Structure formats: C-alpha cells, structure tokens
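Q: What does the assembled structure look like for these inputs?
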Amino acid sequence: MRKDYNLEKRKFVIGGFIVVIVAIYLCKLFDLQILDDKYSEIAVNNARSTKITHPSRGQIYDRNGKLVVYNEPAYDLVVVPRDVQEFDTLGMCKILRLDRKDFETLWKNMSDPEKNKNYSATTPQPLVQNLDSTTYGHLQETLHRFPGFDIAQRIIRRYNYVSAANVLGNIREVNAEDIERDSDNYYLPGDYTGDMGVEKSYEKYLRGVKGKEIFVRDARGRIVRDEQGKIKYYNDGKDNVDPIAGKDLQLSLDIELQQYCEGLMRGAAQRGQIMHGKRGAIVAIEPKTGEVLALVTSPNYDPAMLVGKDRGKNYAKLVDDGTKPLYDRAIMAAYPPGSTFKPTQGLIFMQEGITNINTSYPCYRGYINKGLKIGCHGHGSPIALQPALATSCNGYFCWGLYYMLKNHKYENLDSAFTVWKNYMVQMGYGYKLNIDLPGESRGFIPNAKFYNDNIGEGKWGANTILSIAIGQGEIMATPLQIANLSATIANRGYYITPHVVKQIRDVGIPKEYTEKHQPSINREYYENVVTGMRMAVTGGTCKNANLPGLEVCGKTGTVQNPHGQDHSVFMGFAPKDDPKIAICVYVENAGFGAQVAVPLGSRIFERYLLGKSRNENDEIVSEDTVSNEIENGANKWSDKWLQERPSVFDKKEVPAQLNPDNTPKQESEKTAHHPSPSDPINGLPQNREQEQAILTQPIVDIFTRYGIYKG
Amino acid sequence: MASTRDNNDDSNRLLASVDWFTVLLYVVLVVYGAVSIYASTTAANASDVSMFDFDTYSGKQFVWIGLSFIIGFSLLLIDRRLYEAYAYPIYAVMIIILIATAFLSPNIKGSHSWLKFGAVSLQPAEFAKTTTALALAKLFSTYGFQLRGWRTYIVPVGIIFLPVLCIILENETGSALVYFSLIFVLYREGMNGFVLFALLCAISYFVIVLKFAGSLIMGIPLGTFIVLTCVMIVIVLMLLIYCRSLILGRNVALGYIACALIAWGLSAMGVHINGYAFFFTVIPLSLIYLLIGMFRDDLNKVLMTVIFAAVSIIYMFSVTLAFNHVLKPYQQNRINIALGIEEDIKGKGYNVNQSKIAIGSGGLTGKGFLEGTQTKLNYVPEQHTDFIFCTIGEEQGFLGTSAVLLLFLTLILRVIAIGERQHTTFGRVYAYCVASILIFHLTINIGMVIGVVPVIGIPLPFFSYGGSSLWGFTLLLFILLRIDAVRSEYGTW
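A:
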C-alpha cells in the first residue's frame, strides 16, 4: 500500500484538536474547581437545611421564690413556600380537619404579603397555629409526605396568678419593624418577643440563645433520614448548636402583696377578665434596696388574656376599654402630686437656709399676700415645718417658696428657680427614674425657661407660680416618683432606682439598680421631715394610718382637680426607724387623701409588716378629722395654661403601649430626654411641644374620660 | 509458512501482538467507571450496600463489564479478515435493525431506540457506530478509491448519513450527531482541509455572534464586531498562508490597519462612526481590490478567499436571523444556557447548574469517595449515566477530573497512533473512526457537564452506566485491537 506522507501529517491536526479540547477543559475545570469558591458554598447550602431550635424562655418568680410565669409548649404548622411541592391537599385538610376552602383561605392569608407582613418564600411561615394534640400527632407521622411543611414548637406563657399584668407584660410575635430594629439579628419572622412589662425590658435575658440543627436535604427538598427513619444531621451533627435556655427572673415583687394591693383597688381577681374598680395606682418600695414590692395599676386585667389565639381579640378589647387597663398608671400616669410634694419643699428650704426647724410662717386659713390667696384649713398659726407637715398646711410652704424665690442670695429669679428645680431633679422628679419597665413617664417639673416662654420674661414671679409649692399647678409626678420620695425620706436622704427585678438568674442585677442616688440635702433635714410625717400619722391628717405597734410615717395628699372630684393620695413608710416599706397610694377622683388613700395605705403596712389582712369590704373609717386642705390651690395662670391648649388636650392619641400588635409603635422613648451632664440644669426637653404633648397626656386622659374637661 | 503453525502457537503470537497498553487503559476506564457509578448511586441514607450488589447500578455494571471482557476476548479470536469481508453485510443488517427498532421499540422518554431481550434492553444505535466504521473502512480500502472530486464523496457521506437518518427516526438526536465526527476520517483520507477550517470558522462565528449579542460597540452588537474583525484577519491570513501572496496580504493588512487608525482617530475626536458603515466600507473595498489584483496572482485561490469572506459575512447574519426566527424557544434556551448567555437555574439549566455546582465544589482533591453531597442527595439528574463526570468532579476533585481527561486523551492519541501504524487502509480508516467517535463523545459529554457545550444526551464512553454503551465501545475498541494485532504478519514499517 502506498503511504501518503502528506496526509499522514494530518494526524497532528486531529490529535492536536483533542489535545486542545482537553487543555481547554482542564482550564475550565481548574477555574470551576480551584479558582472559583462559590460552587462549594452553593453545594453546602444545597445540602444543608438549617432548623433553628428555640430555647425555652426564662421563667419568672416573685421575691419569695413563688413561680409566677412559666412555659407550656404549643405547636404550629409552618410552611416554607419555596420548598413546597405538589402535595395531597385533601390529605392535609383531613389531618387538619379543615375544609378545603378554609385551608385555601389560610394559605392565601399566609402567602399574601399584605396580610402576612413577614412573608418570605424561603423561611417558615406559620400556617396553622396552636395545633391540638391529636392533630399534632397525626402530622408528626405524616409530615414526610408534605415536603416544605414542618411543625414549629413555640412556647405559651402561663400565669399562676391573675395579677401583675402591668409588671409581667406578655409576649407577641415579632413584626417587620422589630426585625428591622434588631441590631443583634436575633429575630426571624415567627419569633416571639416580649411586649410590655419585664417581658419586654428583660427580653434579652429571658429569650436565651437560639440553637440550630442542620439536616441534610436532598434535591427534592426532603430531609434525609437513615434506614431506621432517624433524621441524619449534616456533618454528623458537629455543626449543630444547642440552644441556651433563657434566664429566669426573680422579681422584687411580693406577688401576694401585689395581689392584696390589687384587691384593695378593684376587688377579687377574675380569670380572663378586665377588672374594673377604683382608678389609680399603688407603688410599694423596699427603701433600702429600691426593690419594688408591689406595683399596682387599676383597672387591670388577667395577664393570661394576652396569650394564645384570643390574644388579638382581647388586645382589641383592652385597647377599646375606656378605662385603659393597658395603661400602667403606676409609672405612666403623671398626676399632680398634691400635698405629698410638701416634704420636698421643706427639705429644700432648710438646705438653702431659707428656713430652719423653728421658722414659722403665718397661715390664717391660707396664704394671703399681695392679693393672692391660697386657702388652707384651720390650724394654729404661725406654724413651723413639722406641724405644717402634720396638718398639711398650705401657707407654710407657699411662704417658704415665696421667700426662697425672693431671696437676694440668688442672682435673680431665674437662678433661684433653677436652684429649686435642680433639687427637684435630684429627688427623682422631672425625669424618668428609669425603672426596669418600658413606657415610664417623666412627670413634669417646670424650669425658669418654661415660665419665660409661656408667661414671658419678667412677667412671672413667686406669686404667679406659687401653687407648685403644694404640688399643684404645673407639677406632675408619677405614683412611682411619689413612692420613691417616700423611700428617699425613709432612707434619710438617698434612694436606689426602683426596680421590679430582684435578680436575673446567673447574671445578678444591673449595676444601676445598686447605686445610691443622694440629693444634696443633709440627713438632719430628712430627720426633721420624718418627724413631721410621723406627727401627721399620730395627730395630723393621716391618723387612719396609725397602726398599734408600728411606727408609721405618712403624708396625705388631696389633689385638687378642677374638673372633678379630688384625687386621693397617700405617701408613707414604716416602721419609722427601720423602714421596710415605702408606699404611694393614688386613687383618682376619690376625695380627700385621708378618706380613701390613707386607709388603703394602712392596710398595706398591716399586711406586709404584720401579716394581717382586713377584708377589703370592711368599713373604711373616715373620722372627719380632716378638713379640706385647699380651697384655691391651683395657680390662676396654670388653669389658663391648661385651657389654652386644646390642640394638645384634644388629641386622643393612644398611648404608645396601647397600640395593637404589628402596627408601628409610636415610641415614647424616642422623644425621651435623659438628664445629661452637659445639660444638668434645664429640666425641660429640647423639643418642648412634642414633649409636653406626651407629658400632659395622662391628665388629659383622666379629664376627658369623664367628659369633665371643659376646654 | 502460516499453514504449518499450530493453533496454539497462533493464539500465543496473537496475544503477544495485542496492544496491551490500550487494553490496560480500557480496563482502568471501565473499572473507574463502575466505581463512579457506585458512588453516584449510593443514596445518602444507605449504609454499606456492596458495590457488587446486583440490585445496584454498579453491581449491574460489573456484570456488563464481565460480559464485555468475554466479548472483547472473543472478538480477538475472530479472524480479522472476517471484519473486512463482512463489513457491508453487517452494515446492512444493522441498518435494518435500526429501522426495525424505530418502529418496534416502546417509547422510552420519547425515544424509540431500545430493543428488549427478556430482562435486558439494548440500544442498537450504540452498535451502529462500529458497523458504520467498518463499512467506511471497507469503502476506503476498496482498490483505487480516493477522495478526489465531489462525486467521490457521495458514497462515504451516504454510508455515514444512512444510520444518522435511522437514528433520527428513533428520535435519538444526540446519538445521531456522533456520526458527524467522522468528518475527521474524511479529512485524514484526503478531504480538503479547507472544509475543516470553514467548519471551525462556522462554529466559532456562531458562538461569538450569539454570545456577545448583548452589548454594543460602535453602534453594532459586540459579537458582530468581533466576527467582522475576525473576517478581516482571516482574509489577511488566507492571503499570506493559503494564497502565498505576500504583496496582496501586506497591502490589505496595511489598508485595514490604516482604516482602523483613521476610524479610531476620528472617534477620539468625537466623530461617531457606525460600525456597519466602517466594516461595509473597508471590507468590500478590500475585496474589490483583491478581485482586481488577483489577476496578477493565483486567481483561484484569491477568488476563494474573496468568496470565503463574503460567505462568512452572509453566514454571520443568517445565524442571527436563524437563531431568532427559525429555532424553537427551547432550542434557543439550550444554546443560550450552553453559551452562558442565560442563567436558567430552575428550568432548562437546572442540570447543568447543579452539575457545575457538584464539580465546582470538589476543589483540588474532592470531598472523598462517597462523600459528595450533590451526588448523594440526587441534585444532579442522570448522574450515573450522562452526568457521571460530576461524581468524579465532586468526590475526586480536580485530580480526578484531570486524571479522567488525561486517560481519555492518552487512549485517543494511542488509537490515532495505532491507526497510523496500520499497514492497510482498512485498519487505518477504522482506527480513525474509533478516534473520531471517542473525540466526539469526550468533547460533547464533558463539555456539557461543565457547561460549555449545549446539553446533548450522549454517554461518557466506558464510564456511563449502561450495557449497550459499554458493549458498543468495547466492540469498537476490540475490533480495532484485533485488526491491529495482525500487523506483525506484515512486519513493521
């Protein structure tokens, strides 16, 4: 055969061709396998299916170790829309015992981003909540037939006491805003978070740390199981992380005292109900520690109302209720403190050298000076501090403030007033105390700028604003702030920020709740005030608080309410020399302090210190030993100021806490103003209009609720 | 002298002259294949199923392999002259079987290519490659047959296309395409290399035009721009190399460069120049110049150059036209995905994407035997058949994939070498048929798995699961070995 060498060379072309192809493929493979990392990641993500395991939420105990809030598991059917394949809808309906139509409605609601704000095709979306145990059992067995479906366990909070809803708070599903705001990236749609109360403020401790289980997922989205049907973990479970249970809380509350106090306000507890009754608040503090023993608001409700599937319905009910049971009057309501304010004035006057223990001022049925008369009731005159406290004399404190503001030791009126204001701030007024509960109000303490802006520079003087000396006028304080004053006096000059959590298990207590705050007022002046308050109990306005064998100190308050019956207030502590409890009782529209608040206060002392409890329905003895404290307590100007602001008062904004779930909250904290070192003097916030709207809202609520407000 | 030898002696000599290196490559490939099949079909939840369990694909593949060895050995024992003598009858019988299959076989995923024999099914198309190769070899070894003039192409092209038609009839387009690779054989046996070059240009232009159709340059699609530039370069290269006309080539090249510089300068000065205007001024001018200038030179070859350039341009535009108006959407899809224009991870591109993920996640050394997650969790469909290369990529990494590629490269080059050492045209043509078929399968299958070639469902020789495919390639290879084994009878060159 003839060999064609010319053609034989073509073997190089053909061989070269495949060599080039192989070379190109090797390059491509080198790129795919070695240079490009993304495929490894994708392969890992393909094969891994991560399931978040939720830790159990911390339980809540009272100060005596009684279990108050605990967990019960609940099961939801969830679905990852992306992973769902054609499935036996009828079978699913049968297991769920639903009509096909209902199921489709549920499905539609789940996948409608309008209705399900957290919708995402790649994360588990709740489809049916709170499965009953039979359905749960059936589903467990058949779940493998429904790729994309899963059962999510979550916890339901259970409450041992129909009590303390305002302190405990509750939990709810996170909304889009929560997730957006969450700097720890902890929350995923469907998670729960604390709402109100300690559930909210201690959320980070209560919720614990999530764990994860990583399964192997095959191409059809199924979780791979071994031959025995046991779930296989990715990487043999080495990448799994166990959840860490949330920390238990021990409240400083004495749950039984709390219940007792609640009972005093509104009768017996009722499961699943809003409990009406008196309106107002009780705060009890252990002075030495700042631990809150009871924090009562009334009306209130069963905390269990906000659990489970009736939550939405009940929430609406609570929001719609005219008495605002969700509104924690103990810390959110800013009331005029009335005569409970007087001790603060006595302290300031003595510290500033305006008065001493023996300084007496005239009071013939009131303070009468340059055409201004602030009325008072009959008592001896002139009068010194201690009897003035005992009889709740208006004249003494008005004269005191008058002489202070006129005193030449200060540069001018403004600086005199600033000195006064700074003492008030030191005593815990005008700013939030920063109790460990959300939504606290800061009350209101005016400063010179406030009067300059509202009345005009040079247009106001001591007489214009004098009613602030007796806790009327512009002054606003929360029952917590009043109770804190009581604790400060009991401690003879210091307080520890009131807090409702005694300790977080394994963590302890935040440092801010162990630090003493000491107003710059000498201890001896406090002793003087204590004596005055003791005198009030032994022979003054709060005789009803006198308990045999217990040295109770107290101060009544009857807050003049231009629009209705007076508010009845009592502030006190006991025993005098080793105070164990300091309280504030504030009852709206109940008349004289001595009539309602004092007897309630005395029962609380009795109960807590002596372990005795009188029946709530016992006749409240009201010996008419006390006459009207004030005839004309309010500043003329204040009335005008209050009335000239319809725009503020007419706003019937729902307080921040009252918004229903899943709607953006109007965060009162956003506008909060904390005292800062750079701004130690100005008691008022920068944004006055906005802040006043919030500050004054509580009174507005009270006034407008009864249609009394005539503005 | 041959007649005095006894049979035993004969066999010994035969065995001694078999190309054992190729046999070794074959054994390595098929065993590697079966092990890969085991790896690719072991589910993630299965524990310790034996590789040789008959219920598994790998177990069955080992049976096929065992039978293949018997077939291979038997083939070696058949007198090589029989293959040559019966090439045509065998070819004819196979054509009949193919046609019969098209009408008799059941519909399996749309194709009618399987014949059932009791428990086993066979795909005659896999064996038709061998018969066609034999027929082609027989044709070329016919005394006096030479590829000279277009008429001489009719019979060989006919021999190639007859099975193609039958297989298309069976709706197995992928298998039918294999026969186009036999163009390498025609080339080796004298076909003008220009055809191969034109084919290469056609494929490259096709890919470039479609792949770079998205972005614009000088007002025209980038793909068109590149192709037109290539056309210009090809004109110059053809003038220089093919026509051996240095003057024409130099002049045209300088002209192009001058025009390009002017255009670049103008556009730098802010004058907008349309790409079409530029190319359709410059290229026709150069062609006219060539038509005038060719009379001073080799007329035919310059004319050829001009025609080639013109046809290239027409072809380029018709590709765009055909792609947009003739191809069906799913065909466009496949091409788009293969060219990386479209990412269609959920739909048509799912296989390729998952297969790239599998291979890409293998890294240098792979995840280890039976540790491939993509593989075990069935993310890649057809993993034990057409996509078997994924498993190797994922579990053995770059080392595994390059080993396989190099094994195949060695085998193919070995087959070419065997072809070139044949004393007979029959042997050489047959060897080139084997090489071409292997080249095609390797190029298309691996190209498909790594996402550079459209998805065409053809197996990876020796690796992919399936008796027909394995037997088909065994037949192909061992007949070559048998033919090669007699070269000692002729002595060496």
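The radius of gyration of chain A is 33 Å.
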